[in-house]
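We modelled the chain as a single entity of 150 amino acids. Its sequence is:
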Amino acid sequence: MALILTVPKDYGYVLLAAASTSALNIWLGLYVGSYRKAARVPYPNAYVTATEAATSKEKYLFNCAQRSHAQFLEQLPPFLVTLLVSGLKYPVLSAGLGAFWVVSRVLYAIGYTRPQIEGGKGRYWGAGYYIPTAALLVMSGMTGWSMISS
């Protein structure tokens, strides 16, 4: 039995949400670069040591910026999969959740690098990204289930 897959008319919104993550990745790279320059961390060093971070606020903040970018890259593949799959059945809701995720990732990076917030706890500014992550996962399961049960 074949399954004919029809992409909803509003799926373009989903694709725009997915494409926005490329712009976010570029911004995060530039953001980390500004902290790298301020901390005078040469390439190819991905991070500074804990000792260096403890003795220099600039180097500590570089590590925070770098970690926020790395965490984004860790979360990106499952986000994109669930966004693209759930968008087949729920395109507008998925795209909205995708936009929420992207904004949350910006807040995560900005919060993580606030010098007045110790221990990287500023990253909690963007912790809302867990909401669309969970919702898209559930919606992807519902999309898959509807495909095999119809």
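As a brief sanity check on the tokenised model: The two ends are 11 Å apart (CA to CA). The chain has a mean pLDDT of 94.
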